[in-house]
Amino acid sequence: MTPLFDTSIAYIVYRLNSGRDSYIANGGKLGRRKGSTKPIERKKEEYKEVISLLKRGYFVRNTAKLSNVSISTVQRVKREFCLQQI
Prior knowledge:
This protein is mainly α. It has five helices and no strands.
């Protein structure tokens, strides 16, 4: 990489960080808003069928099909509740 490229990247990073710091200093907030994610109790209630099927040893794809949810949802529930197949 050329020195000009490196310095321009460094300057862009500096500008972005200084703008972000300025925003925070003036009362701005970063990140997700409060209440935008589901609490663990609500997830446990909403996906209780998925949890029970995974605890009984069903595979992810079978659990998704039987529970009528997506495979990624089953994988996320499995990861969040630390459920491993036997």
